[in-house]
Amino acid sequence: MRPLPVRRQGDGNAGRPRRSDRASGPRPPAAGGAELSGLRLGIFDSGLGGLSVARAVLERCPSASIIYFADTAHVPYGDRPLEEVRSFALEITGFLASQGAGAVLMACNMSSACALEEARKVYPGLPVSGVVQAGARAAVGEGADAIAVLATAGTVASGGYVRAVHAIAPDVRVEQVACPEFVPLIEAGDLDGPRVERAAAAYLGQALDSGARVVILGCTHYPFLLPVLRRLAPPETVFVDPAEEAALEALRNAGDGLDVQTPSRFILSAPSATFRPVGSRFLGRILPALELAEWTAEGGRLRLMMTGADAALCDAAPGEV
Fold this sequence. Notes:
alpha/beta, Rossmann fold, four-stranded parallel β-sheet
C-alpha cells in the first residue's frame, strides 16, 4: 500500500503541498572518529509518527541515509511530564550523534517544543531542528487571523505552537485542541472507521468552532488521518503538515555532504511486532530489519545502549507489509 500523500486542502492548489524542536552531557562522535558533519540524518519520534517526516525527506532525496529512532518503550509521549520528555529527547539526540548522525531532526512536536533549544546548547556542533517552528511558519504564511492546532496534551501544555506563531505574528489567535485518542489509534494502524471518525469529528469540531480555517497537524502522527479529517472538514479548511518545511530545513542542515550510499537504519527502544509492517505502510517502502537500543540506568540517569536486533519481535514477514 502506498503511503498517504502529504497534501493540503483549502484552495485550487490543494492537491500539491506548498512550502510555507537535560541530558547528562554530549555524546562522543561516531566510532572511528567521524566528524559530526552533514552526513547521515538522524530523525526521532516516540513511535511511528516521525515516519511522516522521514517520508517527506525521502520524497526529496530518495537515497538519503537516515538513522530513525522510535522510542517505543515510552510511546505515547503526550501525557508524560515535559521534563521527562525533555530528558528523553536530549539523550536520544546524543545517541543518534553517537551512531553517526551529522544532523538531527526532532520529528516529535512535544520534543521540539520543550527540548530543541536546550539540545542546541548541549550539542553546539550538531545541527538540530524541529517541527514546531516549521509548522508555525507554514501556517502563518496562509495569512489567516486565527489558527487551530490539533496536538497531544503535552504539546498543548507546552504552549510551543502559541509561542512560535506569536513570535512571527503576534496578533494571530491560536486555538489549541488536545487529541489524546489519535496516537494510540494510529500506532495500532487504525486510520479509519467509526472510532477514528468519532474522535476526529470531536477534535476537529472544537478547532473549527473557534473560527479558525487553518489547522496545524501538531503531531507527526496526525498526517496519517488526513483523509478522515478532510472528509469531515469544510472545503475551505487548510491543513498544515509541518513535515514539509521541517524536511527542507533538515536537508539544508545536512548540507551538500549528505550520505546517499549508506543504507538507512531503523532503531526501536522496545521490541514491536507491528512497527515494521505498519511503518512500511506509512513510509511507502519496506523497512529493513529493525535494531534495538534499550534504556538502561547509568549513574542515576537513563542512557540508550545498542543491544542488537530481535528478529522474533521486531520483524514481520514480507507478506505482512
